[in-house]
Design a protein that fits this description.
Blueprint lengths: L1 H33 L10 H7 L3 E4 L3 E7 L2 E6 L1 H7 L4 E3 L6 E2 L4 E7 L2 E6 L4 E6 L1 H5 L3 H4 L8 E5 L2 H5 L5 H19 L23 H11 L6
Antiparallel strand pairs: 1-2, 2-3, 3-9, 4-6, 5-8, 6-7, 8-9
Length: 225
Amino acid sequence: MHNLQEFLLTTKTNEYLIAIVFMVIFILFWRMLNAPRRLPIRESVTESFQIIKGIFVHPSHTWVEVAQPNLVNVGMDKFTASVFGSIQKIELPEEGDRIHQGDKVWKVKRGARELVQASPISGRIVEVNKEVVENPKLLNQRNPEESWILKVAPSRLAREARNLLSGQMLERWNQAVKEQLVASLVPTSYPVLQEGGEIKPDLGDELTSEQWEEVAREFFNSYLI
């Protein structure tokens, strides 16, 4: 009789232990299923490539264009080349460096005149346009919106493209910027626009230091970086 009671007690204890262990495992499994899922650090570059096409412009007048599923071209817009004037030097980051949207990406110089521009996108620099580094005036001689300065492997392309201007919104913004520039420089002793209504490509060469300072503060968000 005594042995039977011990047997039943031992059996009962084991059942309780098994039940507790099972309950703990169940709770851990349930928490794992209901835990918030973490998003991957990098987006699907193929998906971004399929969605994002064309030129996307940052308010500091830099642009990004998707060239391949995992590669974008980055450059400056025509407004920059026009109002800055002849570019004598450009300071760029190095290949392999990481850049971040809104942070300094390069500096252009002409005598005492300097302009810092912000990166339109985040990612790792794959290639630097050495031709532009050796001869920065090419950015004035060519269409700057067809002349890349950096090639970048983007890290958050689809997400960051929402912070940029494109399509009809970009067209309206460019028109507003042009009208604002004309209003800020009139009256002047020289025309701001050329025939056809576009900004003179060499306008910056005619600006005084005081006029340039005013233009830089008014139109380039990254001027004081």
